[in-house]
Known about the structure:
The protein is α/β, with parallel strands linked by helices. It has helices spanning 20-25, 44-50, 67-74, 93-100, 186-206, 215-225, 230-241, 248-263; strands at residues 5-13, 30-37, 54-57, 81-86, 89-90, 108-117, 120-121, 128-135, 139-140, 162-163, 171-173, 178-180. β1 (5-13), α1 and β2 (30-37) form a beta-alpha-beta unit. α7 (230-241) packs antiparallel against α8. The termini are far apart.
Amino acid sequence: MQTKIPVSVIVTTKNEEKNLSRCLASLERFDEVIVVDSQSTDTTADIARSFGVLVMPFVWNGAYPKKRQWCLDHLRLKHDRIFFLDADEEANADLCDEIAALDWSCAGYFVKGAYVLNGRTLRFGLKNNKLCLFDRHKIHFPVVDDLDLPGMGEMEGHYQPVLKDGVTEKLGTLQTHVLHHAMEDSLRHDLRHDGYAAWERGMRQRNAYPADITPMRRLLKRCFTRLPWRPFAAFLHSYVLKLGFLDGAAGYSLAKSRLSYYRK
């Protein structure tokens, strides 16, 4: 019998009955898995309980902390090292092996996401990159000026958590990718991205983004934000620079989705 990985996994959900079983089935090696559910009206909570995991209800009060930081502040977690996973993500065996072997010399680790489209994992093109595996005593989600902006609501937006004051440890990046199934439900993907795009417009207008946790990421983000032709740059980045064309039609679909997102 394999030793359980001493990490607490937090899966945040709202009406995720189509995705949750796949996600939870991939997490059986972790010592603790908690589903934090925002009043789902489908069978999300029942599916979670069928896997024997704890289901915690979450009702947002319209203020900070938002959902992920609320989890860090209020959940009674077995472990200080936590892994945030979305219900449309999947941790394959190689990723579990890498996490199990970590020496935790870093305060946290970036985990890249490889998109899955029509059952096929894309090898090239854009990879999302999230600081979602970390020691909860060393990293937190900052408060930003977005409570009156449309698009995001209860969940922290598209920015990374940051090191707490006084923490000096470095950050690492895992070699293995999370599998990201967001594009398999195209209608839901597009609706979510409409909201994300509206929120990002407001954040840019008020210059409300927190400073990115790494200098190079700050520089790249600043340069990209100022480009007058950002939609086409996003397409070329995924399809050409990141070799998305080698994934064929799926790679084109991913790059086109980036163009559409930045046109919103």
